């Protein structure tokens, strides 16, 4: 498992009142990159997609605004787009896209699912005209088309029920002219240069993704899939963040990994894992000690509470333990980590304050990692644990992690 940073460019799109209605999300290879340099449209598309739904989260990137995402033919034809929340995403069809009957049918299908459709760098021609039937937005490049031609082009497009966006607006004068022409929205350097956002990420193990894909292909028991997720901190965290990012978790709290898999379903989970596989590092190697500690702690916290709690509470104990090091792994305060997830308040209390029903069990697991173990007697007494029960739980958790091959 490797640690890395995710990067994404973001430029606002504003309405006539200069209020932000959305952000175009742009591929960025690193923090210093000012443009999108990539080896293929598919590479850029999958990178933006996985950063949007798993590494950073839609809420953090665009808040309640729309996310405008460039999609080339290869991405339009893939089923990765079904992982997004349609009502919050506008798909920008690139000017290089060919209007084949198959592609037009696909765009029609995506629009019926609730996606917005934008035509990027649009120029009217017999080749591009078929797209107009399915578009919600048309983006016109002010610099490429020229201010002299814009009034005529804009007027000709008004017979279509689309919002017109003037892009690459670079001066106050260009903005004023575009307002006079009647454009509905604007994007360009005059308002804001694209900013590059970054987030520290933990990448799942390549072999673990392959294993889970194989299990799903063979329709494995949900219990076995849950156990496979438990062995990979990165996968389990990304799964819960994804469910929250696309809106599954907005009406309910995720109670366990089994619950997460049930909400998502095998087909969507398979698509999500496939997307991760495309962007995962093949140089994963052995997991670092910190990740192994997180998995061990998850099992230990679960076992420490097994004499007092069962069922759903035991699942929650495992989540408390395995997620207790996410602040260190992601290099951010725990309260910020929890903003990207929707978890029961009892889990959040344990992770942030070591309080509530689960907090003391996590506190004891952490005390066991302290060489002098000075707090262990007090916590064991509080939790009605004998030294023998503690030693047995500790040994079992270490054995379990070894059996996982971590």
TrEMBL record:
Ranges for domain HDOD come to 202-389
* Name of the protein in question: Cyclic diguanylate phosphodiesterase
Annotated TM spans: none
Q: Which Pfam families match?
A: EAL, HDOD
Gene3D superfamilies per the UniProt record, alphabetical: EAL domain, Hypothetical protein af1432
PANTHER family, from UniProt? CYCLIC DI-GMP PHOSPHODIESTERASE CDGJ, PTHR33525
The chain positions of domain EAL read 1-208
């Amino acid at each position: 498992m490797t640690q890395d940073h995710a990067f994404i460019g973001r430029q606002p799109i504003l309405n006539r009142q200069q209020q932000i209605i959305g952000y175009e999300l742009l591929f960025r290879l690193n923090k210093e990159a000012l443009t999108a340099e990539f080896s293929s449209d598919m590479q850029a598309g999958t990178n933006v997609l996985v950063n949007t739904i798993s590494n950073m989260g839609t809420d953090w990137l665009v808040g309640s605004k729309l996310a405008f995402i460039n999609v080339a033919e290869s991405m339009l034809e893939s089923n990765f787009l079904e992982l997004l929340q349609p009502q919050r995403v506008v798909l920008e069809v690139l000017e290089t896209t060919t209007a084949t009957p198959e592609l037009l049918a696909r765009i029609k299908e995506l629009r019926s699912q609730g996606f917005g459709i934008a035509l990027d760098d649009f120029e009217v021609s017999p080749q591009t005209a078929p797209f107009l039937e399915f578009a919600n937005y048309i983006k016109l490049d002010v610099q490429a088309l020229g201010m002299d031609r814009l009034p005529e082009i804009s007027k000709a497009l008004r017979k279509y029920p689309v919002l017109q966006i003037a892009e690459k607006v670079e001066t106050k004068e260009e903005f004023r002219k575009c307002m006079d022409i009647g454009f509905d929205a604007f994007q360009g350097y005059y308002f804001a240069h694209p900013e590059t956002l970054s987030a520290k990420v933990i990448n799942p193990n390549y072999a673990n993704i392959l294993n889970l894909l194989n299990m799903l292909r063979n329709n494995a028991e949900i219990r076995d899939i849950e156990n496979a997720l438990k062995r990979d901190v990165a996968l389990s965290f990304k799964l819960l963040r994804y469910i929250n990012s696309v809106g599954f978790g907005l009406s309910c709290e995720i109670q366990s990994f089994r619950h997460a898999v049930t909400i998502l379903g095998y087909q969507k989970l398979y698509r999500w894992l496939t997307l991760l596989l495309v962007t995962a590092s093949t140089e994963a190697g052995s997991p670092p000690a910190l990740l192994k500690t997180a998995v061990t702690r998850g099992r230990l916290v679960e076992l420490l509470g097994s004499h007092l709690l069962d069922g759903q509470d035991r699942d929650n104990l495992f989540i408390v333990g395995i997620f207790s090091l996410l602040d260190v792994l992601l290099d951010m305060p725990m309260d910020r980590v929890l903003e990207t997830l929707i978890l029961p308040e009892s889990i959040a209390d344990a992770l942030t304050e070591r309080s509530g029903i689960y907090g003391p069990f996590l506190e004891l697991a952490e005390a066991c990692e302290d060489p002098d173990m000075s707090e262990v007697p007090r916590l064991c007494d509080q939790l009605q644990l004998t030294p023998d029960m503690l030693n047995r739980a500790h040994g079992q958790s270490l054995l379990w992690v070894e059996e996982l091959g971590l």
